Amino acid sequence: MALQLGDEAPNFTAQTTEGTINFHEWLGDGWGVLFSHPKDFTPVCTTELGMVARIKDDFASRNVKVIAVSVDPIDSHQGWIGDINETQSCTMNYPIIADPDREVADLYGMIHPKASDTMTVRSVFVIAPDKTIKLTLTYPASTGRNFDEILRVIDSLQLTANHKVATPANWRDGDDCIVVPALSDDEAKGHFPKGFKIVKPYLRFTPQPNR
Ligand code: BEZ
């Protein structure tokens, strides 16, 4: 069965462009993003890996480590990094897992045979400090991902892990949040000193609590 939200992110040991890692040890006590790309030396993947290198600080400032994976071998990754740096105005600054035996791809269900027997789809897993999976995304090979959206979700995940709020459609850090339905109005008064607005009994907004 496919990995689901709340499952433990499977552990593995793998060769990467920054040495051999044990995934859980590499994650340490912080958050992680594991994302797959279908194949080395392909155009969309080149732009994605370059983009993540350029915004790595935005992940680091949220205590998130990033790591890519594909089913190509390590020497292929090493050669490709030269192209990524040359064409994407970046210096690769995070590891790419070499997964020629598809160990990681199979553990995480990244091969979707009806899409391709040989290449991984574009999967994203956001992993919390307790190693549970908090987000899964699956994109087709032909569509590059929006990494601003992944940062936005991480902001929401980190906020909602610590405060009794949810975040509305297209929410961005700093916008008003939704009071979780489980809280009564009386309980919400105690939780949200800045107050909250009742639009409907089930739809209540409060300023972002950690701002
Ligand atoms: C790409 O990264 O450009 C790509 C990879 C596999 C299939 C199609 C496009």
What is the arithmetic mean of pLDDT? 97
Number of domains: 2
Main sheet: which strands, in order across? Answer: 5-4-3-6-7
Structural class: alpha+beta
What shape does the CA trace take?
Answer: elongated
Distinct helical segment count: 7
Query: What is the H/E string?
Result: EEHEHHEHEHEEHEEHEE
What is the fold named in CATH at topology level of the largest domain? Glutaredoxin
Gyration radius over CA: 19 Å
- The percent of residues in helical segments reads 25-40%
**Would you count the extended β strands for me?**
11
Distance between the termini: 40 Å
pLDDT under 50 segments (min length 5)? Answer: none
DSSP strand content: 15-25%
CATH class annotation of the largest domain = Alpha Beta
Describe the structure.
By secondary structure, this protein is α+β, with helices and mostly antiparallel strands. 30% of the residues lie in helices and 24% in strands. The protein has helices at 23-27, 43-54, 56-60, 74-87, 103-107, 147-162, 185-191; strands at 13-16, 19-22, 31-36, 64-70, 96-98, 122-127, 133-139, 165-166, 177-179, 197-200, 203-206. Helix 2 (43-54) packs across helix 4. The model has no long low-confidence stretch (mean pLDDT 97). Benzoic acid binds at residues 38-39, 42-45, 119, 141-142.
